[in-house]
Q: What sequence folds into this?
């Protein structure tokens, strides 16, 4: 869809996995979810993160593919591997700095998020960003995202590797500190803060 | 009637729950074909009732498409909404009426099943009196069905005793709103939430139980709004809270009285609004005088400084909203908790204005609509009181009977089960309700079910309660009958019929009418369609607070929903209930109501030192009759776990994943521990969606709020012990077994 961009904001994510479920509906990979979903550290926090492919301007997955099976379209979307070429070697899985590509051994093929090519090519928003209840995944115009507290970026550094991407990451507004343990918010008769008494 | 006819294993094998992982025909088959129709309707799985389009082919729902134009959710859906269509063509679906035989449940003809049902109901009433039969309804039913059930109980059976599972949902809020405002509805449309400067979320796990509401909260924050969250657990929305108040279970009332104490102590109340729009302020002001922050801190475990800060943040905002849900409502002082929040809003002038006020987050599929038109034990259609002579006269006229023929108020849901247990009620006809899983004190419920002389069930899947039935009448899913619902916002919506019930299953409304016919009451139930029932509902509600007279199916479609009251066909509806000083009390004022502290009904003690609180997870809905049959949802959270803070876990030597036995004054269950810092260290949490050995409600107690009759699910006392190993249920749980063998074609 012209003029629309994809934004990922883990601070909005509530871990409901609606995106994971909805991704299975996509025509190009029915029944298989391409969303990368993580509980960051469930013992310490409810924080979760759901990612789609970042669709790099210079995709590492394509660069390392020995079979030249991974193509980026003119729309900037990096597609799943071409079935006739893919040799299922997993080079892309190992090389992608974001951990996006998935190998499906039964198909001997790598598949990944193609930003709902079947939908975006006919004027629909990607399934995950349409259903996401907290809009942690959003597919909107840049002027709409400008109303958010968090700000978008699409530049990432992995060691010396600089990567620019089609998909944007929302970066947090200024905060001085984030306390994650219920104890830090509680009042106890002892007047000793609970986390100190541990 | 005594125990299930055959063993649980046999019942599970035949009726499930079997989780369906793929659409009808598999991912690559039938569901891949283009839809013949896209039906604009609504999700069935919570009070928000999000807009959704169902893909239909033949007489089969094969998928969904987001409905981006619907103004509440703009296409957004939680995982339950995404997977709801997997009920279509489900292998566990009941396709025939079933009669209990010594060999198990056997399919019979409708005439046999209905004749038998009517005969047994008549026999029991002749032997023990009219009130020996009770009706259970459900808040997930479309409003036409719930209206019909209310009329069926009072006109076809003439029993006092009809109540519904909404009694387990938001009745504390409803009772409080009736006391304070004279009307039971959230006063605000959700579009007001982003306009508030402060939102206080009290006892509401919005992220998991009303996920779409999260986006409204985040948009409020984007606009600079502050978020205050009160919860013993750090739920996902707490990560973005400006102030988090980790209240001790059952002490919410003290906290809200403390907030009002600080506001009045510091002169932050809005005198002008109080004198213009309210009554009873002075008495409430007196009642909170003793609740200084230090006293409140001792009671609640919330720091005095946080109490001061929250009070100031809330009171200094020009526009603040207090939203609440089951966390405050599921208590033996649930009504008081809601009243205390209302008092906060009234004292700070947050009423009747855009972006300001209080709001209850109704939980069940048609939680709002399902309680407005007569399946509550004390109400008649239009939210009228059954004890009000004018209301009885109006309703009797619509129904074509005399006011004297309408029975008086009967027992509430838990009281009905207690009356069954003590032998006062002998027969039960239950629709869309799975009390064995959802009522507190599940062993007591099982004993009661075993004592019934007749149990009839109307449902689309075999619930655990239905195992005890004499007859199971195969009914309809939400998308199989046309009707209306009312959302948490008060928006009346149109539920479209997408498909006919499969096999020999029937629409629920047909089933009640056919039983009524066999009870000799045919002339009162002449409906040929749910539209005819709705037209009668409109008349019955006319002039009541929940006035639907001016709302037609077509008007809903044109306007994407209409907010009640809507008294005339040209009335635009009422999104904001109290705007322009509107009040539903005769004196034109909203009422401050004094709240009094009291202890919960199952206090912690030396023997039972840990608080137990229960609730939902995002991937399951209520008793799980539907969602435990959907593979994608089962796999997300297959079995209940017990959430424990590491400090408490350490006391018992419990590590993450260990098996732990939680024992209350009623019973015990053994679950795996989930050791997390996101819960108070004096409290454990267990979600309640499962039956048998996984049932959190084996532990909960039957203490009710004296006015709303809601059970105190959120506060029980328990003890913990580390178990030697997995319990019996883990060795052969039906859903889990299916996960191991799942094939994703």
A:
């Amino acid at each position: 869809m012209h003029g629309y961009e994809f934004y990922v904001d883990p601070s909005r994510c509530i871990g409901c996995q609606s995106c994971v479920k909805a991704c299975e509906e996509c025509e190009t990979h029915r029944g298989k979810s391409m969303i990368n979903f993580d509980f960051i550290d469930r013992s310490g926090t409810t924080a979760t993160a759901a990612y789609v492919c970042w669709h790099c301007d210079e995709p590492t997955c394509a660069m390392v593919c020995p079979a030249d099976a991974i193509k980026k379209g003119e729309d900037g979307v990096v597609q799943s591997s071409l079935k006739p070429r893919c040799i299922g070697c997993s080079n892309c899985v190992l090389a992608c700095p974001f951990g996006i590509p998935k190998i499906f051994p039964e198909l001997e093929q790598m598949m990944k998020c193609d930003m709902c090519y079947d939908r975006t090519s006919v004027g629909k928003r990607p399934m995950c960003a349409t259903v996401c209840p907290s809009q942690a995944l959003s597919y909107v115009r840049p002027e709409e995202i400008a109303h958010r507290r968090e700000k978008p970026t699409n530049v990432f550094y992995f060691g010396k590797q600089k990567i620019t991407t089609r998909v944007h990451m929302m970066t947090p507004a200024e905060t001085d500190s984030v306390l994650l343990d219920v104890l830090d918010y509680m009042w106890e008769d002892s007047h000793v803060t609970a986390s100190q008494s541990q | 009637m005594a125990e299930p006819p055959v063993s649980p294993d046999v019942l599970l094998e035949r009726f499930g729950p079997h989780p369906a992982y793929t659409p009808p025909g598999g991912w690559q088959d039938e569901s891949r074909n283009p839809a013949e129709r896209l039906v604009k309707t609504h999700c069935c799985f919570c009070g928000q009732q999000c807009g959704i389009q169902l893909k239909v082919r033949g007489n089969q729902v094969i998928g969904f498409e987001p409905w981006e134009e619907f103004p509440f959710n703009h296409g957004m859906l939680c995982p339950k909404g995404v997977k709801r269509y997997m009920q279509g063509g489900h292998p566990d679906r009941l396709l025939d009426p079933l009669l209990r035989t010594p060999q198990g449940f056997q399919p019979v003809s409708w005439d046999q099943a209905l004749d038998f049902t009517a005969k047994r109901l008549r026999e029991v009433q002749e032997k023990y009196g009219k009130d020996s039969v009770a009706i259970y309804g459900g808040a997930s039913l479309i409003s036409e069905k719930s209206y019909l059930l209310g009329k069926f109980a009072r006109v076809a059976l003439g029993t006092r005793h009809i109540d519904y599972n909404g009694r387990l949902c938001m009745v504390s809020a409803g009772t409080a709103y009736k006391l304070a405002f004279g009307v039971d509805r959230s006063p605000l449309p959700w579009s007001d939430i982003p306009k508030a400067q402060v939102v206080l979320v009290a006892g509401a796990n919005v992220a998991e139980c009303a996920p779409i509401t999260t986006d409204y909260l985040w948009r409020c924050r984007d606009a600079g709004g502050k978020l205050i969250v009160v919860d013993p657990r750090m739920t996902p929305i707490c990560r973005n809270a400006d102030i988090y108040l980790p209240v001790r279970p059952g002490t919410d009332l003290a906290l809200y009285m403390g907030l009002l104490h600080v506001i009045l102590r510091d002169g932050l109340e809005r005198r002008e609004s109080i004198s213009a729009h309210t009554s009873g302020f002075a008495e409430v002001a007196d009642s909170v005088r003793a609740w200084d922050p230090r006293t409140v801190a001792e009671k609640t475990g919330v720091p005095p400084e946080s109490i001061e800060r929250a009070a100031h943040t809330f009171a200094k905002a020009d526009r603040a909203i207090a939203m609440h849900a089951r966390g405050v409502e599921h208590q033996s002082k649930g009504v008081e908790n809601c009243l205390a929040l209302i008092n906060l809003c009234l004292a700070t002038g947050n009423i009747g204005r855009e972006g300001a006020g209080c709001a209850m987050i109704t939980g069940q599929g048609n939680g709002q609509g399902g309680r407005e038109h007569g399946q509550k034990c004390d109400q008649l259609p239009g939210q009228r009181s059954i004890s009000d002579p004018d209301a009885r006269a109006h309703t009797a006229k619509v129904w074509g009977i005399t006011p004297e023929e309408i029975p008086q108020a009967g027992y509430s849901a838990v009281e009905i089960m207690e009356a069954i247990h003590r032998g006062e009620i002998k027969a039960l006809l239950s629709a869309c309700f799975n009390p064995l899983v959802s009522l507190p004190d599940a062993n007591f419920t099982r004993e009661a079910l075993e004592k019934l002389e007749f149990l009839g069930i109307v449902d689309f899947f075999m619930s655990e309660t239905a195992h005890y039935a004499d007859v199971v009448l195969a009914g309809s899913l939400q998308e199989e009958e046309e009707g209306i619902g009312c959302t948490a916002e008060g928006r009346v919506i149109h539920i479209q019929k997408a498909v006919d019930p499969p096999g020999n299953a029937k629409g629920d409304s047909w089933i009640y009418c056919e039983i009524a016919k066999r009870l000799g009451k045919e002339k009162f139930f002449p409906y040929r369609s749910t539209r005819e029932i709705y037209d009668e509902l409109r008349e019955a509600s006319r002039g009541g607070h929940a006035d639907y007279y001016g709302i037609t199916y077509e008007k809903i479609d044109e306007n994407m929903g209409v907010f009640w009251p809507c008294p005339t066909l040209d009335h635009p509806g009422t999104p904001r209930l109290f705007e322009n000083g509107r009040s539903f009390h005769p004196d034109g004022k909203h009422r401050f109501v004094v709240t009094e502290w009291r202890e919960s009904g199952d206090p912690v003690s030396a023997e039972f030192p840990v608080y137990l609180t229960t609730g939902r997870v995002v991937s399951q809905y209520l008793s799980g009759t539907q969602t435990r049959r959907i593979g994608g949802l089962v796999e997300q959270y297959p079995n209940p776990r017990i959430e424990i803070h590491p400090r408490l876990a350490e006391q018992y030597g419990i590590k993450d994943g260990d098996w732990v036995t939680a024992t209350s004054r009623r019973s015990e269950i053994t679950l795996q521990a989930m050791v997390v810092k996101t819960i108070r260290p004096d409290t454990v949490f267990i979600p309640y969606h499962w039956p048998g050995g996984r049932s959190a409600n084996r532990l909960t107690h039957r203490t009710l709020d004296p006015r709303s009759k809601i059970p105190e699910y959120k506060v029980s006392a328990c003890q913990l012990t580390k178990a030697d190993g997995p319990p019996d249920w883990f060795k052969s749980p039906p859903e889990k077994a299916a996960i191991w063998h799942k094939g994703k074609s």
